[in-house]
TrEMBL record:
Domain of life of the native organism: Bacteria
Tagged with keyword Membrane: yes
Keywords recorded for this protein, A-Z: Membrane, Transmembrane, Transmembrane helix
Bilayer-spanning residue ranges: 22-47, 67-86, 98-118, 130-148, 183-202, 214-236, 248-270, 277-295, 315-340
Organism this protein belongs to: Pseudodesulfovibrio profundus
Protein name (Swiss-Prot/TrEMBL): Uncharacterized protein
Length: 347
């Protein structure tokens, strides 16, 4: 069977695909940064608890429900843009994953509920109960992340979709050697950004120990992630790997720029400068998201080029979207302002 026959036809786009690709990359960067801060700080908190000090976990636990809400909200945006440009791949991989994919909703509910209960009832629970609740919530997040890596990689390999016709009902992308390092790359990145989040918390509260703990996790996890990144790079098909090593100028330029970002964030990290480290982290995660975009383009190139999707040039929906975006950003700015004012009054 020719796998190309399994790919649904692309629907026409109202405006050029580049709009959706840019919005996809930008919103995905925000999604991943919030996800990293949430999962990473929760993981560091539980490690500290296991080592006998649960104060950090309690402090971080106060931040997890809002961080989770932001992660989920910032996940919806890239999901929509992904479906616009690559829906004929992403819908298929979601359906093929079946129950594994739907299980995300259950996992999200469990994790969300767990973090809420921890935040508001931490003092009413026994040590074992609260740590179990926290641990289960982290496992839920790991499940969600793992399923997303499976989906975003399964959508790239239509030749693997044939497993469905061999009787596989609901399967993951486990044949792909790039899937484990890709997932690990995101998880180790979470420890780094989670550490940075703790350091920022320390800076805000003038709590030196948190800056030390946070920056240590930030730098050490980033160094470890350099190794995971090399594993990831050599696990992707050779012709695609070579695109990042000179065969494609934009991909190579993005890759070099992102490595420069890593050097800068590490330098800020070792100098214990959470502010500078944050700026370089945002730049680097954005550039890594661009690398990831090139990767998707190269994987899909035998099957599909997004530039070939017909465009109808109907700008009405774009103007509506931009209008709501501006109003939405102003509303979010206003709400954040209220939040911080309320926080200052309590402090
Ligand atoms: C709260 C727990 C979540 C975690 C830990 C998480 C983690 C991740 C990770 C690790 C990836 C990267 C996968 C890869 O490229 O290998 C990812 C991508 C993505 N996530 Fe999330 N996510 C979470 C929630 C959500 C939710 C609730 C949504 C949607 C409503 C969402 C939407 C997306 C989308 C659309 C992508 C892929 C974007 C693209 O391919 O360009 N995520 N997420």
């Amino acid at each position: 069977m020719d796998p190309a026959t399994l790919i649904p036809l692309a629907d026409p786009l109202p405006i050029h695909s580049a709009w959706f690709d840019v919005l996809l990359i930008v919103t995905f960067t925000a999604h991943i940064l919030f996800m990293n801060a949430m999962l990473g700080s929760a993981a560091i908190g539980i490690v500290k608890t296991i080592r006998g000090n649960d104060q950090l976990n309690r402090d971080v636990g106060q931040k997890l429900p809002p961080l989770m809400a932001l992660t989920i909200n910032m996940g919806v945006a890239p999901l929509l843009f992904l479906q616009v440009n690559y829906g004929q791949f992403d819908y298929v991989s979601s359906v093929l994953m079946g129950g594994w994919w739907l299980g995300i909703i259950v996992a999200l509910l469990i994790s969300y509920y767990g973090f809420y209960a921890y935040k508001f009832r931490v003092d009413n629970m026994g040590k074992a109960t609260r740590n179990l609740l926290f641990g289960v919530s982290i496992i839920g997040l790991l499940y969600v992340g793992f399923m997303l890596t499976n989906n975003t990689t399964l959508m790239l390999v239509p030749h693997e979709w044939k497993q469905y016709f061999d009787g596989a009902k609901g399967f993951l992308n486990l044949n792909d050697p790039a899937m484990p390092p890709r997932f690990l790359h995101f998880m180790v990145g979470s420890l780094a950004i989670g550490g940075l989040f703790i350091a920022l918390l320390g800076q805000w509260r003038k709590h030196n120990e948190y800056i030390t703990i946070g920056m240590r996790w930030f730098t050490h996890a980033t160094l470890a992630n350099l190794l995971v990144g090399v594993w990831f790079l050599i696990s992707i098909p050779r012709d695609i790997m070579l695109k990042f090593m000179g065969d494609s100028t934009p991909a190579t330029a993005t890759f070099i720029a992102s490595l420069f970002g890593v050097v800068m964030l590490l330098s800020a990290g070792f100098r214990r400068k959470p502010g500078a480290a944050t700026i370089w982290s945002i730049i680097t995660v954005f550039l890594m998201a661009c690398n990831r975009h090139w990767l998707r383009t190269f994987y899909l190139s035998p099957w599909f080029r997004v530039e070939d999707t017909p465009v109808t040039n109907q700008f009405g929906s774009l103007f509506l979207f931009l209008g709501f975006l501006v109003v939405g950003l102003v509303a979010i700015g206003y709400m954040l302002n209220l939040y911080f004012k309320a926080y200052d009054r309590r402090a």
